[in-house]
């Protein structure tokens, strides 16, 4: 009996948030995914079937936090399940700053290594993939970085 009451309350609450962050995130993710696909199709190497899962250690190293109530503030939306993060739930924060339910992002990272929203790539256990990624990111950072490149980190 009391349980039903709770779920109704939750539904009402999530109503308040419709039309904002979820749509935006969805859009951005779709766009990024498209770019990613294009880039991968273009680069064409062998028959690698997409990204490997994130390294177990990388998943374990994610910052865990408890979702706290924040009335009147922007609620965090988990981009995996598209649901708001409810007080008392356990969330995980990726190094890129995006937050998800622990129960959503951990299985996600078990099949691929990238943030669902911004495609930030976590470390993997796949040495070959890591090599490729290093090459790719160094090409990317030529155009993207310049602002805050670490001063002395690139000596050989
Ligand atoms: Zn979720
Ligand atoms: Zn992210």
UniProtKB/TrEMBL annotation:
Statement: the UniProt record of this protein carries the keyword tRNA-binding: no
One matching Pfam family: zf-RING_2
Keywords on record: Metal-binding, Transferase, Ubl conjugation pathway, Zinc, Zinc-finger
InterPro entries: Znf_RING
Residue ranges, annotated region (Disordered): 128-156
Keyword Zinc on entry: yes
Catalyzed reaction equations: S-ubiquitinyl-[E2 ubiquitin-conjugating enzyme]-L-cysteine + [acceptor protein]-L-lysine = [E2 ubiquitin-conjugating enzyme]-L-cysteine + N(6)-ubiquitinyl-[acceptor protein]-L-lysine
Alphabetical GO biological process terms: protein ubiquitination
GO molecular function, one term: zinc ion binding
Residue span(s) of domain RING-type: 78-119
Top-level taxon of origin: Eukaryota
EC number(s) per entry: 2.3.2.27
Protein name: RING-type E3 ubiquitin transferase
Organism: Arabidopsis suecica
């Amino acid at each position: 009996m009391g349980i039903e009451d709770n779920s109704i309350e939750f539904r009402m609450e999530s109503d308040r948030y419709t039309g904002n962050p979820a749509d935006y995130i969805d859009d951005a993710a779709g766009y990024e995914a498209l770019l990613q696909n294009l880039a991968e199709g273009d680069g064409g190497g062998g028959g690698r079937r997409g990204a490997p899962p994130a390294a177990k250690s990388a998943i374990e190293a994610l910052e865990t936090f408890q979702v706290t109530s924040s009335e009147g503030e922007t609620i965090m939306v988990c981009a995996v399940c598209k649901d708001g993060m409810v007080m008392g739930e356990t969330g995980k924060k990726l190094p890129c700053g995006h937050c998800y339910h622990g129960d959503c992002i951990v299985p996600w990272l078990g099949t691929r290594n990238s943030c669902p929203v911004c495609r930030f790539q976590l470390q993997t256990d796949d040495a070959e993939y890591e090599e490729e990624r290093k090459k790719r990111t160094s090409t990317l950072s030529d155009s993207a970085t310049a602002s805050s490149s670490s001063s002395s980190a690139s000596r050989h």
